[in-house]
Amino acid sequence: MTMEFRLLGGVEAYLDGSPVDTGHTRQRTVLAALLVDVGRPVPTDRLIDRVWADRPPYRARNALSAYVSRLRGLLTGLDGVRITRGPGGYLLSTDPLTVDLHLFRHLVARARSAEHPATAAALFTQALDLWRGEPFPAVDAPWFADLRTALEAERLAAVLDRNDAALAAGRHTELLPEIETAAAAHPLDERLAGQLMLAQYRSGRQPDALATYRRIRDRLVEELGSEPGPELRRVHQRILEADPGAPPAGPAAGRARSTLERRPTRFLGRAEDVRRVDAAGREGPLVTLTGVGGVGKTRLAVEAAHRIGDRFPDGVRLCELAALSDGAAVGHAVARALGVQQQQGLGIEQTVTDYLEGRALLLVLDNCEHVLDAAARVVDRIVHHCPAVVVLATSREPLGVEGEQVLPVHPLPEADAAALFADRAKAHRPGFGLDHDVEEAVGEICRRLDGLPLAIELAAARIRAMSATELAQRLDTSRLVRTARGADPRHQSLVAAIDWSYRLLSAPERALFARLSLFAGGFDLDAAHGVCADPGTTEDDTLDLLVGLVDKSMVIPRDGPGRSRYLVLETLRAYGRERLAEVGPADRFARRHAEYFTALAERGARAVQGPDERIWVERVLPDIDNLRAAFERTVADADADLALRLVTALPELAHLRLGYESARWAERALDLADPGHPLFAAAAGAAARGAWNRGDFARARSLAGRAHGRVPGRGTGRVAYPADILADVALYEGDATTALQHYRAEVERARRDDDPIRLVWTLYYVAVCQAVLRTPEAGLAAAQEAVRVAEPTANPTARSMARYALGLVLKKSDPDRALALFEEAGELASSVRNFWWHGIALMEAAATRAVHADPHRACQDFLGVLDHWERVGDWSQQWIALRYVVRLLARVGTAADAVALHAALLAAGRPSPLDAARLADLARALGEERYAAATAAGALLSGSMVVSHARAALAQPDQRISRQPKQRRCGDAQACGTQEIPSL
């Protein structure tokens, strides 16, 4: 008998094709809540929330148990279908492909990986035919409403991908009516409009296709204030050119990520320049756009990247260097733009090239001129070691790297300059038009400004206060066109343009603008007021002035979640720094900047140990460039106290979220400070932890030793206790007994100090040490206490650590509960961008599944784990993950890959999890010749090659995995594996 479940419409069940009565609405809701997570336990509290939200009935657990009991009765006697309850919650077991939602996702995934468009289109159609209407329409719980919205988005994405595939397969005629209907329902969807244009064009209706473009363009401009995106414009252009091979209108779901923002204003002119960039990028690995400030290098680079980005399977990344004051930070800035962290034992530049080595990606480096040598060094490594990466740089002078193609960016020709002026003037005065007299005045303005886009935009901002003719007349005596002897006249005209706009500001606006030049990488209103305001003024006063600067195009608002942020363009910022002395002592405001961001970091460091961790992470992390500038100011002033305050505030905020750069700052601060300073021990701990993360244990010991046994004060960042780092070195080097002795003593100290955050940390490590000693039962009490202590703190990281510790000591005796705990730990850590605890939770969940639950799922999970540690750059954890992978592959019978990775571990000086007996079994399974070949091949693997080999083995596991029995308990140390060390 075959049971089928349907969620893509009403909640229904069918037995051999006949409907089954699944009860009233609430009982069907329970069934749906279990089917959405089929094969995975759903904790009782989570299930109650899904069914009743914030209005559960009296004794909700009893009501839920009754519904589940009735559902069990309906499913009794059916092969492979059952509902069980374990420590992790309720679990409905059945073949996922008997549930239409999971079958839909399975078919869509197959379609997206299909090689031939016709095959993909057929699979998409099969998936979409499963939809019978709105999912679970009778269920009104908020969780289901959110899920319904998400599923509708999945369905639309599948429809769009199906359209692309069908159009590529030549099915434009039969598809046209359906796309017309969908486009009418989604009139602002550019991808759908492009598909409609393509179907119309290929059906012989070119005028209709062009009319479709005009219609959506008008709506986008009227309703959103924006022009169509580059992909839709490209379809339009190719239809205009009668290109029969015009491509599908949009990217398939899952396209490579891009960090380019959509520009809110139109890109005018420079079509030939964009073609030059495209052609140069096809010929060589480095293209540098050069020209004076304000000529439009950045805008051209971003526009070109938008238009050619589809050529790069791994996407486009934009790295802005303008905020950097020190070339040493270039590598860190590039790594942050790529989303990777420094790998242990490697420099930041080696980390970047290792990450990029196997990727096909476009990297845009903007504003290189002030850190030219450092930028050139990073780019040179990329050019020589990353064959599929193209770098597009902007700089006022070439980088001087081998293979560089330099494309000078010239001012706009007169017609394009006039069009730019008119477009920007309309934004300030909607009725602005180019009649004959106005056209002559605009032409004069653009000639006097030498066609420099930034100068033109600044001048156009003045059109709200005067006519074009008056503006042109003022140029006759204005400093806009005055030059200095020996200077580039175009550059001087830009400086004059900025100067003129500056002189038109009120005195308070001028003062604020000049002081805003102290900020690196942006700022919010609180920072603007805290650093720049005059005594006696209020935050509202500062906001009024800031709005005035935004209106005058001197400050740019930045879109994004959370608090509103603002940016001063680098050219304007450089000018503002020159004006600082005119509006007050420059050193005084630079000092205020350093003090403000030090205080902000200190507030954040306290808050991230409490319930508001997420709020403060999102508040402080956008200001990493300002924190760097503040630290450099403290060093320049030789202000050891302020430097120590700053670096000891950052371990909680930055170290586990952005990478290990701040630990280097801590090392430099130690060299400034008196060892007797109250914060010296915490700074030594922060510096030592960074050396630990880089795998330099000798350096970690040396730095921790500078604390001379002193214990940092309460509230110090969890990772910054010097004695902890010494214990962690011992733990990682095999002396778990010494580490356990240290952490037991620290548990008692934390109890005496009534410090719950410190107590959770030390209890966590007691549990870890016991697991490493293979006595997890001895760590159970510590882990349970950690959970009890963590909950009242409401601190996500503390709660994550405690759940992880409990899962660790239960993974052999109660794997179901351990899995649920690891998943909760990962979710908590991820919610506050804590990449390290998120990663170890993912890893332990995968390792537990590999032995106790589902080897197929474990293979997929370990692919995610390997990707996570590669992004983070933590090779100590990557080696641990690889050991787990070796165990999994050996256990499920993929002998050759297990042997190869075993040999790779040994070649890298890392221990292998396979003992002599297991290796002998693998040798017998393979035969002498294949065993020797696998060993030799593995010994040649190194670094990223090991990870690539592991990925390939996990992506196509041996079919024998499906025949392995699922173990519910494990008493065999080899099968379960010894506990690896989750080291910071």
From TrEMBL:
**What top-level branch of life does the organism fall under?**
Bacteria
Which InterPro entries does the record associate with it?
BTAD, HTH_77, OmpR/PhoB-type_DNA-bd, P-loop_NTPase, Sig_transdc_resp-reg_C-effctor, TPR-like_helical_dom_sf, WH-like_DNA-bd_sf
Key words, A-Z = DNA-binding
Q: Does the keyword Cell wall biogenesis/degradation apply?
A: no
Short name of one Pfam family: HTH_77
Q: Which family does it belong to?
A: Belongs to the AfsR/DnrI/RedD regulatory family.
The name this protein goes by in its record? BTAD domain-containing putative transcriptional regulator
Specify the species.
Pseudonocardia zijingensis
